[in-house]
Fold this sequence. Notes:
The structure holds two protein chains of two kinds. Chain A is an alpha/beta fold. Chain A contains 15 helices and 20 strands.
Amino acid sequence: MIPSITLTRSTTAPALVVPVLAGQIPHAYAQAASADAFTGAPGTICEIFAPPGRILLTGLDEAAGACAAARLLRTPHIAIDAAGFPAATAAALATGAALRAWRFTTLRTYEEDDAPRLAAIDLLSDDPALPALWPAAHAAIEGAALARDLVSEPANRLTPTSFAAHLAPLAAAGISIEILDQAALTTLGCGGLLAVGRASAHPPCLAILRWPGQGGSPIAFVGKGITFDTGGISIKPAEAMWDMRADMAGAAACAGAMLTLARRGSPAAAIAILPLAENTTGAAAYRPGDVLHMLNGTTVQVVDTDAEGRLVLADALDYARRQSPRAIIDLATLTGSIVTALGHHMAGAFTNTPGLLAKAQAAGQAVGEPIWPMPIADSHRRALDSDIADIKHCVDGSGHPDACQAAAFLETFAGDTPWLHLDIAGMEQRDAATDEHPTGATGFGVRLLDRLVADHFEAHHG
Amino acid sequence: MLEVTFADAALPTSGALGLLVAESAGASGLWHEADEATGGAITRAFAAAEFTGKDGQTCTILAPGAGLSRVVAIGLGKEADLTPRKYEDAGGSLAATLAREPAAALAADGLPGAHAAAAALGATLRAYRFDLYRTKQKPEDKPKLAALRVLTTARDEAETAWAPLKALANGVFTTRDLVSEPANILTPAEFATRIHKLADLGLQIEAFGQEELETLGFGSLLGVSQGSINPPRMVVMQWRGGGDDKPVAFIGKGVTFDTGGISIKPAAGMEDMKWDMAGAGAVVGLMAALAGRRARVNAVGLVGLVENMPSGTAQRPGDVVKSYSGQTIEVLNTDAEGRLVLADVLWYAQEKFDPRFMVDLATLTGAIIVALGHEHAGLFSNDDDLATKLLAAGEATGEKLWRMPMGRDYDKQLKSDIADMKNITGRPGSSITAAQFIARFVNEKPWAHLDIAGTAWSSKDAPITPKGATAFGVRLLDRLVADYFEGK
């Protein structure tokens, strides 16, 4: 759930957020600010109780909207007074506030008295440019919220099949949705996706989302969509396994980005390929040591069934290549290794096209979804040599640079198509709320993809 | 060290001959002469072995005639890709292939002298052995290659190029010897003694013992060493070849053995912790190389030498120590000791020498191996210009670096409940948070940190590095100095 946002010039909201620049406190609040030693420094807040209600003087920085909303989560109706600031700043403030106030409420049957209830935001602005700019900003909020909702859904509700049902808002926005079921995948020969999904009572499928834009070759998004990952026969430890409901965050981000592009009427054609499967144990499960025939004809020796993401991505990458895309960007909660490498502040980025990575890095920086370039080196490629098949899909045991090796594996399926792989493990959820972010799903990647398309894939549509 | 000599290009009449062959190149010079003298044996062998000079290909021809014991051809790959690095690797492969020949000649006719010298460097580096503790090796099992004669049409040029490379090889071997030594031999005191022997090269050397370090107030370093009966040292090496310039500074982690201390490590693999001083080893080898080739630069190398042991006197998890900088550190894990050593040495380096920049080397985290593997060392820096130069030097020498991020979000993870900072964070991003910790002790100086945990030791042979101690960092930083800081 995200608050509704109204562009207006006046408000009746009992709480008003007033962004201020350092050293430029509005005269009416100067005395109160002084009493609190508030100077308007970025990231600081001064709360004043004055008629008609609460006023939050908020030192302006990128997180100001979010931090103010964090203080006001229990106020159903607030206003942000962006008068005097450019439209882009106004939009950023509202975006920050809305995303901070997002909450997954679908499964709650009652609310505690102190539950967040921020539901409406009035955005006060005097910049005439705002109405033209706002729909795109709001589309990004909607896309991020969709991704977060999908990630939040537990695996008993969000199966590969029901994932498709959750994509209804996309169809309403003009996106065509095609689902290849198990039979179709078998005919096609998606050996990776079929193997990973075959032990589950919920069969795997491949969802293909198409946004036509104004025609031309599409940009392709590929998202790992493991609706639950037990690890399969190479089963995970019980501790923290519940988190594996979020192992479809890559697919969710792609779906969210598609919704954003459609809602804002992007001229760029886009396609999202979402391999959806549940990786579980069972009598039919694929085994360590099995050799799979992948969609592109490669034979792959399975080493650890818990390295399933790269198998479903491999088939999806090849399917994406068949659409003659301008570039492929895949997102996946792929490895623990990337979490060890980069922690929870950045996603890992791997590519065969450094220029594409640089553009995505700039886009991520601009929207607060940072990524960092990581290597695919010869040693990572050689580590995948198999004794009986074309390639192994991972290296046995722990302590390896698995994120780099996974990327080396995927690289072989991307071929010569410009390709970027974002390992977003560690970025898809937050354990605890901060001033800037709510707890739980982040929707990481949605706004990065939207920004990347806006900045680099729309120009020639003029 | 392999005895390298340069001679004019004349076909030898005995012994072994090495050929460096670019892909699809035609026979010429000594190669052609040898082929003629052996009645076309080389041409026939290449055809039979499908040897075309591809990168990494080798072809050995035993007793081809004309008095030669064997001819070995090493593939260089495509002519367009030929860098000095390729010649180093080819020289290394040649040395490995000729290990059983007491003496060999290399046909380097037609090559620029620099390339001939690069091949000689590669051969020298590959022929390194650490044999100190083998008492029962049978003579037939011992590698015999002791001398390499490089046959060249550019003798003066090659000899000029070789002189600094020989000094560099000596530096690399100094490091490999130190890193290979077991911890019962190489204590901090013994390490310092060996450094003192480098004074002959013109290095000015000063060592600090337990008492001096206490007087200085090296609380962070001393906390690590307090559990061992082997007292710590800090050794400072200065090379003055750059007039009145401010020096460049290199700092090495020298934990001569790391048990982990009270936060003790698991037994499996603990023997590797004898090389937890590889950063210090590299700094010493680098200083030997710079002095050996009379580098036109002022350089200072500082190593913090300690042993990290569990005992009744050992530092405990939860202890708070006061570093030389004055900042306090809550030691939550005694196995995150390298950064505690570096903290005091780095602060001392910037305070005492006001260097142009500081580069530290440390086998610091297991996380860097999970992040990057064994091909790249992690590069962390507060200075983009220095980082760019280091990356370029890494590419040029094959001691490759990969830049890793730093930033406020990572730094914040070091917050302690009772001190200025804590010495560990959780596993996520732990190479980065280790770098953030060190960054708090560089006092805003241009600085780079190389996490060499994955690159200091190799479990298999590489063209110019036999398995074991790699001396990673010596060639890299020698190149950094040569390309960017000498005479400038």
